[in-house]
Amino acid sequence: MISLKLSKKNRRLVYVGLGFYLAFLLITLPASFLTRYILPSVDPAGVVKLQSVRGSLWSGQANDTRIGKFYLGALDWDLSSLGLLLGNINLDVEFKSDIANGLGEVSLGFGGSTSANDVELNFPAEMLQPFFSGFPISISGDLRGTINELNYVQFEQLQADGRIVWQEAALRAPQNIELGDFLIEMSPHNQGTKIKITDENQGPVKTELNIKLSGNGKYTVNGWMQARDQSQQHITEALRFIGARADSSGRFWVSYNGSLGQKSISGQRKIR
């Protein structure tokens, strides 16, 4: 038997060499390592889909990015090595498609939690149409704004803090009506989010809607909409599909409840 004994100095050199080799392997890990091994660990349901990836694990790109039903287009990311050691995937991301773009900081936890900070968004309102599948309306316009903070744990937490402006908002069904601009303000409430939607005082429809979204995806919508010029019958008729009969002031009061996990939305209309 051959016995190979190394001096203390030589052992130190071997350890240093191994350390550099391991560091080299980590630095040169391809971007596909994220999609094949890391994402499945934090997203077993496969909500996030990245295709045609290139670059390295730490700085990569994907030509085709989807989150659930939403297509985000091309995606660039920078991955924090420190976050990975602490059990989180901390990414600086930027996405861009023909119709939408955005950037921000995203953290995917191995415990199933997702958070985001300082996310700037610009996308058409039509991308949100799936959320209105139970309502007799079709929407258009552009949404621009910032999500200061978002925290999500499936069936437990859905908190958001931010401000988005819905520019050139419009109904395309049941009738074609230009609505002007709306302000959407979000703030955390318990494990969910409070959302307030108000008009920006220049469109044909006065609006004040309050939405409570719980951590498990259930929500309630309460508020009113009113034609600024009540002589415009086409606006009044369109509002009847959303609310109920107008009260004495001409406000159409609405009340809906449902769940983001349902294909259809159950609700009722209030008459005041």
Secondary-structure-derived class:
alpha+beta
Q: How many alpha or pi helices? A: 4
Euclidean distance between termini CA atoms = 95 Å
Low-confidence stretches: 19-25, 263-272
Portion of residues in beta strands equals over 45%
- Structural Rg: 25 Å
Q: What share of residues is helical?
A: 10-25%
Please state the average pLDDT score: 83
Globular, elongated, flat, extended or rod-shaped: what is the shape? elongated
Largest sheet: 14 strands, antiparallel
H/E element sequence: HHEEEHEEEEEEEEEHEE
Q: Can you lay out the helices and strands and say which pair or pack?
A:
Layout: H1 8-27, H2 32-42, E1 48-55, E2 59-67, E3 70-79, H3 81-85, E4 88-96, E5 101-109, E6 113-124, E7 138-153, E8 157-173, E9 177-189, E10 192-199, E11 205-213, E12 218-227, H4 233-242, E13 252-259, E14 267-268
